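User: Okay, second chain of the day. Same drill as before: sequence in, structure tokens out.
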Amino acid sequence: DVPTSERHPDLASPLYGRLVEVILKRVAYPPSFVSWEEELDVDEADFEEMRRLATDVLVGAYFLMRAGYLEKLAEVIMSVEGNGGAGVGTSNGGGAPSNDQHYH
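Assistant: Same drill. Structure tokens below.
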């Protein structure tokens, strides 16, 4: 393992940028999502656990990427909005809706 401080900066940004992109897409609600009672393809507990675990990775990526993180976040949100998909949301680690937006 090479400590983060010893890694070349040009290697961190593309790697973490791709990681942020993948995680944000994984923590977004499925495009056809209406409610957990009607959702057959995604398990609610697994989905919420993924979102909870993703928080630490997204925070770490922000501290390594700074402005690049915000650019990647905007890029992913715009692609989701442009495709008419379910919202990614930005509260609670880049994905979970606030309590008043949960579908229970």
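Residues 90-104 have pLDDT under 50 and may be disordered.

User: Thanks, on to the next one.
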